[in-house]
Amino acid sequence: MLLVGKKIGFALTGSFCTFEKTIPQISRLIEEGAEVLPIMSFNSYNINSKFGKAKDFIDKIQSITGKKIIHSIEEAEPIGPKKLTDIMVIVPCSRKYSRKNGKWNYRHTSFNGCKISFKERKSTCNRNIYK
After folding, report:
1. Which CATH number does the domain housing residue 31 bear?
2. In this structure, are 40 and 89 located in the same domain?
């Protein structure tokens, strides 16, 4: 199993229509041997929508993971500095956001794993992403 021993931060944002399809994925990660740290944005933790009550989603996620959901900035701040996760999953992650943080944000690693220089805008790997 590829995920045995991996700590995965699973963050749900405010796109409530996706919750019914994404919450079962948490179970799949745990079945694969991962340790899942549940995280919800302020809105996804507090707002009831036509897709379901926030409390129902919270109860379902906490029962699957056996952990309290991180839902405030104060609770989430230590995740990076304390290296609480190996992998972060942001659900849903719109194409606009992932493209912005991947391909077009030159300070970070691009979507295809190539480091990109901020000044030169050249790829340091063999792939040309500017086609």
Report:
1. 3.40.50.1950
2. yes
Collect all residues with Cβ–Cβ distance below 8 Å to 36 and sequence separation of at least 6. Answer: 8, 9, 10, 26, 29, 30, 64, 65, 67
Does residue 39 form part of some domain?
A: yes
Number of separate helices (H) and strands (E) present in the chain: 5, 3
Give this prediction's pTM: 0.69
Over residues 21-77, the pLDDT tens digits come to 888 999 999 999 999 999 999 989 999 999 999 999 999 999 999 999 999 999 999
Residue 81 domain-assigned (yes or no): yes
- Rounded CA separation 14/91 (Å): 9
Confirm whether 86 is domain-assigned.
Answer: yes
Residue 129 falls within a domain, yes or no?
yes
Q: Per-residue DSSP letters for 15-74?
A: -GGGHHHHHHHHHHHHHTTPEEEEEE-HHHHH--BTTB-HHHHHHHHHHHH-SPPB-SHH
Please report where in the chains the tokens 């030159």 appear, as a residue.
106
Task: Find out whether 125 and 114 touch, Cβ atoms under 8 Å.
Answer: yes
